[in-house]
TrEMBL record:
It is an enzyme of class 3 (hydrolase). Its EC number is 3.4.21.26. InterPro entries: AB_hydrolase_fold, Pept_S9_AS, Pept_S9A_N, Peptidase_S9_cat, Peptidase_S9A, Prolyl_oligopep/macrocyclase. Residues 7-416 form the Peptidase S9A N-terminal domain. This is prolyl oligopeptidase. Keywords: Hydrolase, Protease, Serine protease. Residues 1-30 are annotated as: Disordered. Belongs to the peptidase S9A family. It catalyses: Hydrolysis of Pro-|-Xaa >> Ala-|-Xaa in oligopeptides. Residues 9-19 have a biased composition (Basic and acidic residues). It holds the Pfam family Peptidase_S9. PANTHER family: PROLYL ENDOPEPTIDASE. It comes from the Bacteria.
Length: 687
């Protein structure tokens, strides 16, 4: 293998002094994406990537596309006798929003009809409490800058919109469908330069009026990076508001009685403020207030109280914390002689649902599930009933929707995905290994029958409390079918073992996450699953940071790396995209102690000349407004300069897509390139 000829990238003598530490930044010029020299460099990188010898592209493109022909279906939301859900048929690029009632089902919103180019995505939707109107949000080209519209459900006609600056906005309808609460950023002219992505507020909007006339009800004078939640009870009497500083694993919470104060000026009563806990509220049809919280219970608990006494001192445990399982959600079924509570859990990342008496919380049984997999979105009818719906998937089963009937105790298939695909024979085993400090960590290992060592992809995330649960993956199955092994490490920083597991991998404990990944790799090698020259690591976003740190800390341990939409310059990350909302997860370089954490592992700053680094593919997206592609650009330039070996450092720079949802065909192309790259550099031979 010969060393590639890399595009020329100048190294500037830029060194910042931060808290007495010299911080070099030779490729800062790559932060200016509009500069002609940056565009020229990116064009040259794209030419280099497209010239790479990746013989498996066509094979993986065809197989991943075939596996994705399973399509998809979403959990139904019921409102006023109507059912709202999404479905994607095998030939469609995006999920389509449907509504079903006594007249049958019909398309309510098809993103591809709105935009035949396939660049428009449906970000979210929320029907009114009566089901006669629906608010939805769409964005274009991957920028996630949601614009809010309202349609008449009966006719499909647009009632109003767009309202811009609604990224990550909940919509809370007031009964009657004439008004709703929502979240909107202040206009750019009203905020300091560079802070246009922040400064959210909660507004009350009257349908048909100008958003300029909306009444601001919350957020003035609070932290600029706050995210807000807002909801209104089914009867319209109770309002709840939540505020979180960025992605912090804690929130402040207020409630208001809208019967005693006006919707325009609700009298808010604090439920919790300045408390290190995450709490959510559900106003029950029985008049009780149900509290979902990790206050004093890192794995979660369900409590009850009166809406008139919502503070923690009044909470009574209904479903206490489980010592091993993490509470994920719950649903109330009360149209039956003895009302019950369904509680969703993950036990070491495997889903289960328990059954409890609603009044006492006593566990009285379990909901039958199709297998050992992931359960999501337990939903009941808002007005009550004896049925609940939830999604289920595992490593060889595409996500399907199941229905549980509390009167019969039976779980039945409600709706399967519309496509039929043949999946390879494969099994998944959950193994336990020990990390550097002795902590037990789990890992899901999927393979076909056979023995190692085999080309293996080790995937991880390890951040923001996000769990790596089992689920159907065209990427995994295409790789395993071709003869490889796919392992998913359930690292600290995630949510597999509750909030403490998350906190053991954030801020000053972030090195635990990297140690967990290295230990997973060493376990796979020691047990004969793979060998160093056949082992690749893969991760995106926070997982891109993970593999970026891994390749700089242990370049000897990995043969190849795929690093997607990554954070890599951890000294300047707060200056770009949504970075300022993540300092509650990583820390801030402005604070001396936290700078020391970041400086200890920041991948861009740990690239060293004369080191033989793994073959590395950076994949970034031009419209990514969360993590700017500059992280990968700077890191790619640094690695190309430093690489002592012959293994390539490549950059795949894709336009008109962003950090999140995209058309299926664009996903197929990305995965095909990534798997073909990893196959070449781990020795996976395609027949």
């Amino acid at each position: 293998m010969s060393r590639p000829q890399y595009p020329s990238a100048r190294r500037d003598d830029i060194v910042d002094d931060l808290h007495g530490t010299p911080v070099p930044d030779p490729y800062r010029w790559l932060e200016d994406s509009d500069a002609p020299e940056v565009k020229e460099w990116l064009d040259a990188q794209e030419t280099l990537f497209r010239s790479a010898e990746l013989e498996g592209r066509d094979h993986f493109r065809d197989r991943v596309a075939e596996l994705l022909r399973s399509g998809s279906v979403g959990t139904p939301s019921w409102r006023g006798g109507r059912r709202f859900f999404t479905r994607r048929s095998p030939e469609q690029e995006h999920p389509v929003l449907y509504v079903a009632d006594e007249a049958g089902e019909r398309v309510l919103l098809d993103p591809t009809v709105l935009d035949p180019s396939g660049l428009t995505t449906l970000d979210s939707f929320q029907p009114s409490k009566e089901g006669d109107r629906l608010a939805y949000q769409i964005s274009v080209g991957g920028d996630e800058e949601s614009r809010l519209y309202v349609v008449d459900v009966a006719t499909g006609e647009r009632v109003e919109g767009p309202i811009d600056r609604c990224r990550y906005s909940p919509v809370a309808w007031i009964p009657g469908g004439e008004a709703y609460y929502y979240v909107r950023r202040l206009a750019p002219s009203e905020v300091p330069a560079g802070e246009e992505q922040f400064h959210r507020r909660i507004y009350l909007h009257r349908v048909g009026t100008s958003p300029d006339d909306d009444v601001m009800i919350f957020g003035e004078g609070l932290e600029k990076t706050n995210y807000y939640g807002v909801s209104v009870s089914l009867d319209g009497r109770r309002l709840s508001i939540s505020a979180s500083r960025g992605t912090a694993p804690r929130n402040d919470l207020w409630v208001a009685d809208l019967a005693a104060s006006s919707p325009e000026a609700p009298e808010l009563v604090a439920v919790q403020q300045d408390v290190d806990a995450q709490t959510g509220l559900h106003f029950g049809r029985d008049g009780r207030l149900y509290v979902f919280t990790d206050l004093g219970a890192p794995r979660g608990r369900v409590c009850v109280t009166s809406p008139d006494t919502p503070g923690p001192e009044h909470w009574r445990d209904l479903v206490p914390e489980d010592p091993e399982a993490v509470l994920s959600d719950f649903a109330i079924l009360d149209d039956m002689p003895e009302p019950v509570l369904l509680v969703g859990w993950t036990r070491h990342a495997i889903g289960e649902i328990s059954l409890h008496a609603l009044e006492s919380g006593e566990r009285i049984g379990d909901v039958p599930l199709p297998g050992l997999g992931s359960v999501g979105g337990i939903l009941e009818r808002p007005e009550g009933g004896h049925e609940a719906w939830f999604s289920y998937t595992d490593d060889i089963t595409p996500t399907a929707i199941f229905r549980y009937d509390a009167l019969t105790g039976e779980t039945t298939l409600w709706e399967a995905p519309p496509g039929s695909v043949e999946v390879p024979e494969a099994t998944t085993e959950q193994v336990v290994y020990r990390s550097k400090d002795g902590t037990e960590v789990r890992m899901l290992v999927t393979s076909r029958p056979g023995s190692g060592p085999r080309p293996t992809i080790l995937y991880g995330y390890g951040g923001f409390g996000v769990p790596m649960n089992p689920g159907f993956s065209a990427t995994t199955l295409a790789w395993v079918e071709a003869g490889g092994v796919y392992a998913v490490a359930q690292l600290r920083g995630g949510g597999e073992e509750g909030e403490q597991w998350h906190r053991d991998g954030m801020l000053g404990k972030k090195q635990n996450v990297f140690d967990d990944l290295h230990a997973a790799a060493e376990h796979l090698i020691a047990t004969g699953v793979t060998s160093q020259d056949r082992l690749a690591i893969s991760g995106g976003s926070n997982g891109g940071l993970l593999v970026g740190a891994a390749l700089t800390q242990r370049p000897d341990l990995y043969a190849a790396v795929v690093c997607s939409a990554p954070l890599l310059d951890m000294i300047r990350y707060e200056r770009f995209g949504l970075g300022a909302t993540w300092n509650v997860e990583y820390g801030s370089a402005d604070v001396p102690e936290e700078f020391a954490w970041l400086w200890s592992y920041s991948p861009y700053h740990h690239v060293r000349e004369g080191v033989s680094y793994p073959a590395t593919l950076f994949a970034v997206f031009g419209s990514d407004t969360r993590v700017h592609p500059l992280h990968a650009w700077k890191m790619a330039a640094a690695l190309q300069h430093a690489q002592a070996g012959d293994r390539p450092i490549l950059l795949r720079n894709e336009t008109e897509v962003g950090h999140g949802a995209r058309a299926v065909s664009r996903s197929v192309e990305l995965v095909a390139d990534q798997l073909a790259f990893l196959a070449r550099h781990t020795g996976l031979k395609l027949s």
